[in-house]
Each structure stands twice: as structure tokens, then as C-alpha cells.
Design brief:
Blueprint (H helix, E strand, L loop, with lengths): L1 H7 L19 H5 L4 E3 L9 E2 L4 E9 L2 E4 L2 E11 L13 E4 L5 E6 L2 E7 L2 E9 L5 E17 L14 E16 L14 E4 L4 E4 L6 E7 L4 E7 L5 E3 L9 E9 L2 E9 L2
Length: 271
């Protein structure tokens, strides 16, 4: 039960409601899966951002209906997400905020930062967005509290739980999500040259590994959704990043990393 709660309580990052909150969207693959919790998960983590550039990270949350413990069934009524008492604004980079445009409920300010309720047995989405003003790697921290009611295991939980009811079942502090904000004027440590060359003709991205390094390439769209990850061996000279993937028109970010060094390329796919 404890392990299960830890997974489903990893709801992640849904916080301040603002007038400029972007419209978030559910990740269709995650929603159709048999998993509950948050996507991206802690292994995938969040998109790297650029200093003084717009940042958006979409988050999908699946709140389960119930879970069984021995002869009892817990019917989840809500999850409350708030900043821990010793953390300022969840540890977010300056210029970024959390908010949701989906069916979540404001829960007032806790420790000076907005808190939100997420109804049980529902799918929701949220966004981390804004313009980061200070570079660095930021470890995010948040407190997630689960509320629910208990019934016998052979009984049925309501399809639409009342999010104003229920007792506190579990409190979990999450501290494994991070956002890396890169200062693009100083990320290249191989003198003035990047260790690779990028060419693209809208729907084809080709990387030349000119310094024969072990590289990791991650392709993101402007909404912060990770499209593909490619591991490049030092012996590979030319690699197709989006092989068999047709890119729609828009702005894309390509994050290239090697050991402790990172480079970011931005490019546009035209109609």
C-alpha cells in the first residue's frame, strides 16, 4: 500500500492559477495506459529551458479511483498539492510558475504559494511556464496529500467523488524533479565550435558527430513535449534524429549532451 501510494501521489506540479495560464493538454498515450500518477515521470523528467526564453512543460495527471488494503477499499476524493513549509514556491526557477487550465480547484495559499486540489477518479493536466531569468539546475520540491474515504473491499466507490470530503490518508514530499535552465551564451565548452553539425530540411534532421563523442540527442516541440531520444555512439559519424517521424510545422528544440556538457539548438519547420 505504501509503495502504491508513493506512485500515485507523484502527481507533480500543478500550482498557481494565473490569467496567463496556457491551455494544457493530456498525453493521450499515458491516459490510455494502465498507469496512474504523473507524466512525464521522474525518469523522463522535465524539459531543459533557455535563459530569457519562453518555457512550457506540459504535465498529465491521472488520479485513481481507489485502492484496496486488506479488507478495506480506499476511495480517493482529492489530492492536495502544495509547497513544503521550508521551500519557497516549490523551488521553481525565477520567472516560472505552475498552474492548471483543467478541472482542478484552488486550495488557497500555503507557505505563500498557491495550492490546488485534484478530484479523485479524474484526468487532469497542468503547465510549468514563463520566462526563466536565472540560469542553473533547480531541484523542485512539493508536498502531496491524499484524502479519501474507506469502505469494505467488496463495495464500490462513487464514480464522481466529492472532493470536499474525506480524511487525510497520506502525505508525501517529492524532491526528485528538476529543471535545468541553460545560459546559451556559455554552454559551449569546446572553444567556439560545437562537437557536431546539424542540418535539416523540415522533416529530416541529420546530425554529424564531427568530434566522435558519445552524445545524447533529445528532440522537443515548443510545448515541451519530448518527441524522441537518440543515443549516439562515438563511432557514428552521421545520425538521423527523426528517422521515420514526420514533423509538423512549428518550432523545435534539440538538446544535445555529452557527459556534463549541454548544447541547445532551435529550428523551425515550415509548412
Amino acid at each position: 500500500m505504501k509503495k502504491y501510494l508513493f506512485i500515485i501521489l507523484s502527481l507533480g506540479f500543478i500550482l498557481a492559477k494565473a490569467q496567463t495560464t496556457p491551455t494544457c493538454s493530456l498525453d493521450a498515450v499515458f491516459i490510455q495506459s494502465n498507469k496512474s500518477g504523473v507524466y512525464p515521470d521522474s525518469a523522463t523528467n522535465f524539459t531543459t529551458g533557455q535563459l530569457n526564453q519562453s518555457y512550457i512543460q506540459n504535465i498529465t495527471i491521472k488520479v485513481p479511483k481507489d485502492t484496496i488494503q486488506s479488507i478495506l477499499k480506499i476511495c480517493f476524493t482529492r489530492f492536495v498539492v502544495s509547497t513544503p513549509s521550508n521551500v519557497v514556491n516549490y523551488g521553481l526557477p525565477a520567472g516560472l510558475q505552475f498552474a492548471s487550465s483543467s478541472s482542478v480547484v484552488a486550495n488557497g495559499n500555503i507557505n505563500g504559494s498557491p495550492s490546488l486540489r485534484f478530484p479523485g477518479n479524474a484526468n487532469n493536466c497542468a503547465s510549468i511556464f514563463g520566462v526563466p531569468s536565472v540560469a542553473g539546475n533547480y531541484l523542485l520540491k512539493l508536498q502531496v496529500q491524499a484524502y479519501g474515504t474507506t469502505i469494505l473491499s467488496n463495495q464500490q466507490c462513487p464514480a464522481l467523488p466529492n472532493y470536499t470530503t474525506g480524511l487525510l490518508i497520506n502525505t508525501t514530499n517529492l524532491n526528485y524533479y528538476s529543471i535545468n535552465i541553460i545560459n546559451t551564451t556559455g554552454i559551449n565548452h569546446y572553444s567556439i565550435d560545437k562537437p557536431y553539425l546539424i542540418s535539416h530540411n523540415n522533416n529530416q534532421i541529420l546530425l554529424q558527430n564531427k568530434m566522435q563523442l558519445n552524445l545524447t540527442a533529445k528532440l522537443f516541440d515548443i510545448q515541451g513535449r519530448q518527441i524522441k531520444t537518440v543515443i549516439i555512439d562515438s563511432q557514428e559519424s552521421f545520425v538521423k534524429i527523426n528517422d521515420q517521424y514526420n514533423l509538423t510545422p512549428g518550432i523545435y528544440l534539440l538538446n544535445i549532451s555529452s557527459q556534463n556538457q549541454t548544447w541547445v539548438d532551435k529550428f523551425i519547420v515550415h509548412p
